[in-house]
Specification:
By secondary structure, this protein is mainly alpha-helical. It has one domain. The chain has 22 helices and 2 strands. It has a two-stranded antiparallel sheet with strand order 1-2. About 50% of the residues are buried. InterPro entries: AbgT. This is AbgT family transporter. It holds the Pfam family ABG_transport.
Length: about 500
Amino acid sequence: MDRFLNGIERTGNRLPDPGMLFVYCLGLVLVLSALFSMVSFSYINPRTGEALQIANLMDAEYLTGLFASMVKTFTGFAPLGMVLASVMGVGIAESSGYINIALKKMIRITPDKLLAPAVVFIGAVSSIATDAGYVLVIPIGAIIFKAAGRHPLAGLAAAFAGVSGGFSAGLLPSALDPLLQSFTQSSAQLLDPDYQMNPLANFYFTFCSTFVVTLMGWFVTERIVEPHLQSVEVSETEAETTSMGSYNAQENRAFNISSLVLLGMGAALFALCLPEASPMRTADGSLTAFTSPLMRSIVPLIFLFFLVPGVIYGRMTGTFKNHRDIMNGMSDSMKTMSSYIVLAFFCAQFLKAFGDSNLGTLLALSGADLLQAMNLPGQITIIGIILLTAVVNLFVGSASAKWAIIGPIFVPMLMAVGISPELAQAAYRIGDSSSNIITPMMAYYPVIIVFAQRYVKNAGIGTIASMMMPYSILFMVGWTAFLLLFWALGLPLGIGATYAYPVM
């Protein structure tokens, strides 16, 4: 296994810098789009209902528009604002010392042997906050492991596995549930116009999956990844050497008061969300709908929930003597994100061109067409869908975008052979989550590289891929087996869900 992972790391690190990789990929998309635009396809684009046509991005008009909209594409890149706003809030809590003492207390009460499952579990649960776990849980996972005297990249890997590999798991419903349900139901209605599906149709399965993902992540972290990282030296200039075992009475008092304020803010938010007429709900009373004010306020809430206790703690301990110290704390947190901002610029241009070309749609449709032609038994078909979704995820990162493309093909196809839309959606979620952690095309992958470089200067795509490959393989196999076990035992997938669809 060590030789295998070392081979992945060596090969991956021979790749260009991630920023240049996106530049090369952009050039490849431009060339391929010109070539495939001359080919006629029989596929129907499910998003438009028209024949699929690859757009020629080498057209002078498109290239002119691409250059003219570069700044708008960059500033409109969704992960950019989320990452920077969240990091500013977390930066205040870090620079004040609030997170440091919180970790000291956590390490005091958490046995060293349980740090790995705790980090993976918290990562999986963070799916309730949609993408916020990428910029919140992952760096904290590295800090916790470093503070406990363990390799920080092992903590980063465990957190990344929980957040991204376990994205479709969770103890509470998230915005992803109604988002995917809307696509699944509309896809099912292509075959059965009266078909209705509950947004929590996979909730029981995803709830139980949280613990399965935690156990698998724990095993991989301690048996494979952490031993593999023993030879990887941590950069002393970036690694914190602060003792995590002690704190004085003033720090303890400041932490307790800051934490009480944090709990009060949480209680106030809960009270605000509780009434049916709450301004944090949608018009129909939903809190977890993707369009609800609560879901759209996740990043500002993270900013405030770290900023306020961080400022209180800093003022009480003297870390922040005036408002300039607070602003400097935010500025310092931005310094570590400069390389990510550069990466985000090129990543945004590539993703825009790739989406405009329809090449991703062609890959999804051709793969789904092949699976349909194979006419395999139900269990094998489900495994095939999981594998195909994982492969498509290497090219199309967005969970909703992929399902919008392949859902209208997968769902009616499976209904025609007696497999329910709810089961098809559960299979899709496994394939999507399991391969999230190994695709550099995922929007947050550059962020993970930047976090890793805080501890290992020469960390690159190969470093992350070699760490995350074992998680991806075990998640794919173990989670698929868990779904098949659920199916074999007849356990309910979620509210109003079934496994079978009556074939006429």
